[in-house]
Amino acid sequence: MFLHMKFFILCFLGLVFGEVNAVRFYKFEVVNSAHTRLCTKKTILTVNGQFPGPTVYARRGDLVTFDIINRSDQNITIHWHGVKMRRYPWSDGTDYVTQCPIQPGKSFTQRMILSDEEGTLWWHAHSAWSRNSVHGAIVILPPARETYPFPKPHAHVPIIIGEWWNSMIEIVYKGFLVGGTDPQTSNAFLINGQPGDLYPCSKQDTYKLQVESGKRYLIKLINGVMDNIMFFKIGNHNFTVVGTDGAYTKPLRTDYVAISPGQTLDLLLEANQPPSHYYMAARIYATGGEFVTIPATGIIEYVGNYTPPPSPLLPSFPQVNDSAASIGFTDQLKSPGSNVDVPKKVDETFFYTLSVNQFPCTNPSCSGSTRLLASVNNVTLILPKTVDILTAYYRGIRGIYTPDFPNFPASFFNYTQGTPLKEESRSEFGTAVRILEYNTTVEVVFQGTNLGGGVEHPMHLHGYSFYVVGSGLGNYDRIRDPPNYNLVDPPLMENIAVPMNGWTAIRFKANNPGVWYMHCHFERHVSWGMAMVFVVKDGERPNEKMLPPPPDMPRCGGEVSSPPLVIGEPDTTMGKREDAE
Ligand SMILES: *[C@@H]1O[C@H](CO)[C@@H](O)[C@H](O)[C@H]1NC(C)=O
Ligand SMILES: *[C@@H]1O[C@H](CO)[C@@H](O)[C@H](O)[C@H]1NC(C)=O
Ligand SMILES: *[C@@H]1O[C@H](CO)[C@@H](O)[C@H](O)[C@H]1NC(C)=O
Ligand SMILES: *[C@@H]1O[C@H](CO)[C@@H](O)[C@H](O)[C@H]1NC(C)=O
Ligand SMILES: *[C@@H]1O[C@H](CO)[C@@H](O)[C@H](O)[C@H]1NC(C)=O
Ligand SMILES: *[C@@H]1O[C@H](CO)[C@@H](O)[C@H](O)[C@H]1NC(C)=O
Ligand SMILES: CC(=O)N[C@H]1CO[C@H](CO)[C@@H](O)[C@@H]1O
Ligand SMILES: [Cu+2]
């Protein structure tokens, strides 16, 4: 009976989703489980009790079904980071953008619809700050009869750079929401869940990768940390970058990488050094604030008979604040071919300023006299609470969002001027979306601002990959800069770090109907409202339209009859909103 049911579901999925290579099933139970790092034991939210969570294996074009069962005491959503989810935003897993959260005791069957993605992506929670421990790798292999555009690797090795707080992340998050400043810093960075030799109480559990001389390993590097770009190196070994964000790149020989939160990199490593033990290590890149500078380490152990050194040699890293090293790496990423299908003509050009804003704060819970929020084009996103934006759009529920997200900032100012403009740095609140006609070609220029002090912003778009056609320091100049765009071999990404007090231009074709979140992947910034939403309308043909929602979409509870959100209403979860009015 049960088998029949599964067979029926397979046929049904095959019909609805069209041609798929294979259908795979995973069961994800979201549970609290106890884990100890740095001699501190605490309960963390996990999938199936694992930290990091299970690796998902699939081939390009597969349909992967997940039974998500929430056996925890927290609301949860799971997002398939970098998967375009063609025509099916219902499983994108962004709370209050594409779904209501899966509440404790509830479950939701999500479908990860792979299309052209190949390489490395990852899945993570999108609700509150649960993604700190609720995450795992997605390894997407070529279809069975196809090969790699590089020598076949002997093994795939997911390496997730993560982060550990000795305090419960829920408490760190609550403190951050009311405090109005940067969150409490983490206590350690991690490689595959372990801090490594250089941290106290950690040596015996250090992650180890055994390699055989003469073989090739494909390292699937994922930055799962909350708020920082990271440098990554391997002792004594150079390697070749062959992919990023689920797409291949021109092979790039290097001895280090910089990787943004959310980003992935595929690194081809040849075990061609004298048999020994070597470190792989991840260290923070940061230009200000407090942070842990101790690298997280793992050990590459050659198999064979030899006497390893008492301790491997730590590779030398760029300076913690070496922006040139961070930008310099990212700028070298290119698409493998030339004349890629980057839109040459654009229908819509948007200019989006990215700012950290300051509001006065008199509330005693604030750490200072001001509190921080963040914005895109001076709009701080307030998510609805009674229904998600996708459902509101699909069912025509009014009053949930406004279709007036600005194409340009309301006023032009020297975005990157040296002295932060403290007096002028308030933003306004809104649940504004930008509606796009199907097939529109879009250019977005992100402009980092120095309001409240400049910092990088790793911007992430759901539902699409985009071409990164240009970037630079200072203010974008619409006369000077476009002629220098790379329209020949720009990298295809879904996550790009906009340089500190600089700009980045991306292009994509809006041919995936749905409701798609775009946000900074620094958790503190997205929690402060540095996010917006694109609504891409259906095209004309059946295969250009959104698929219908599944029957088990999580509900917020009585959403349709609940009162609509009034834009600008005080939002208690943001702490100090009242003071801002
Ligand atoms: C790695 O590359 C650097 C330059 O980028 C070079 O100086 C070094 O010798 C190379 N190391 C190995 C082991 O090939
Ligand atoms: C990086 O930090 C060092 C030491 O604090 C400082 O001397 C240097 O000027 C900084 N470099 C940059 C590029 O900010
Ligand atoms: C903007 O500010 C930067 C940094 O302070 C300065 O170098 C530049 O000249 C200013 N641009 C304009 C147009 O005032
Ligand atoms: C942003 O909006 C706030 C509130 O309306 C306003 O005070 C501020 O001047 C605006 N800032 C910019 C740069 O447009
Ligand atoms: C969208 O673009 C595709 C490919 O260029 C084209 O085949 C299709 O007709 C277009 N659809 C619409 C509604 O414009
Ligand atoms: C969990 O989600 C429900 C539905 O949106 C909401 O009513 C409730 O307040 C949420 N709980 C927490 C702790 O955020
Ligand atoms: C159905 C189910 O798994 N419910 C669980 C939800 O989470 C709470 C708190 O962890 C558990 O007590 C329930 O058993
Ligand atoms: Cu940011």
Automatic annotation (TrEMBL):
GO molecular function: copper ion binding; hydroquinone:oxygen oxidoreductase activity
Primary localization class, coarse: secreted
GO cellular component: apoplast
Protein name per UniProt: Laccase
InterPro entries documented for this protein: Cu-oxidase-like_N, Cu-oxidase_2nd, Cu-oxidase_C, Cu-oxidase_fam, Cu_oxidase_CS, Cu_oxidase_Cu_BS, Cupredoxin, CuRO_1_LCC
Catalytic activity entry: 4 hydroquinone + O2 = 4 benzosemiquinone + 2 H2O
Function: Lignin degradation and detoxification of lignin-derived products.
